[in-house]
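Incident log, entry 3
Record: Bcr/CflA family efflux transporter (409 residues)
Problem: checksum mismatch between cached and fresh output.
Input:
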Amino acid sequence: MLRTESIPDVNINRKQKYLGEKGLLALLGLLSAFVPLSTDLYLPSLPGIAEYFRASVHLTNLTLILFFLFFSAGTLLWGPLSDKYGRKPILLIGLAVYTAASSLCACAESIYLLIVFRVFQAVGGSAAGSVATAMVKDLYSGRRREAVLALVQSMVLLAPAVAPVLGAFLLKFTTWRGVFWALAGIGLLSLAGALAMEETIEHHYEGTIIQTMGRLGTVLKNPGFTSLLAVFSILGISSMAFIASSSYIYIDGFGLSEQTYSYYFALNAMGLIAGPMLYLQLSKRFSRRSIISSCFLVVALSGVLITMLGNFRPWLFALTLLPSSLAGSCVRPPGTNLMLEQQAGDAGSASSLISCFGILMGSVGMSIISLDWGNTIVALGVLTAITGLLCEALWVWTANKPFIRQVHD
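Fresh output:
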């Protein structure tokens, strides 16, 4: 079994001349946050967009669902290409597409054009999501990598707390179009950071384009990686189902204002932010395996509480959802690190698959919760409970397999 102590924590040959380590970590956090920034910032605008275009909820939600689907598909393209051509060129191309598409979203004259431009926005933004995790593997290893992942993911999860509040604030001064202009500005900021970044990959893959894309299949043939990929991807079903339904639950269901909704959303997002840091503290006293197992059970219990109590008051719904948010984000650093540890090379392909399957499962959750349920809160609670129990069962089965590295560390 590969021991973390035998690997240096940081590759000193690839330090950043212009960004420095702090600047690089900030860039990694921003790049990794493209999904929550591109969705949560305009969540308060969803009811207004539906009203503006006189579109149904299901049609309006396609701006979310298709974004996630094409974002996940895009990661499968950019990740392997970054193994061949380098992280920086792929980032520059993807971020340029994202920025242009965000501007077009702001100018859309129909719901159908908005959906199309969101697809291009997703494809461009997926370069950021797939390359960021690969960069972490390029530069860090062992416990240091796990700590960096926890820090970056806490920065990432700050976006769900801040974005809806900022989105609701923007709506006081502008329309939903202004929100997309803000996303275009985020794209430009990321593009500037990517220009200042030094290349992080040390060895480029030298095969053809077809062989490069074929590395995705090579990674999937690794049973250790694929087993863990299934375990940790499924958790995205319940978390993304909440994101898709949150504005309708709080604004339409409980009758709250857009600004008040953003505060409730931020309350649960605080659990997301605290989760990775909580893991670092718990890992000093408990094994990785027991922490992950306990977190999956907490998610399931949270689902039961949502089903039983979530309909009574908005604050009660937020509190019953909080344990799921906290536990779900707590398993992200060890889960991502475990998956990366299973694969010696092909960091871009491995990162792509991690992003793709996580978002794909999230899209499944969004599609499920968008169906015409009689009670959305009860449906979300049941979905959360089932997700937690399924992840727990798969984790217990997977963790006992001899081909899984470092589960017990």
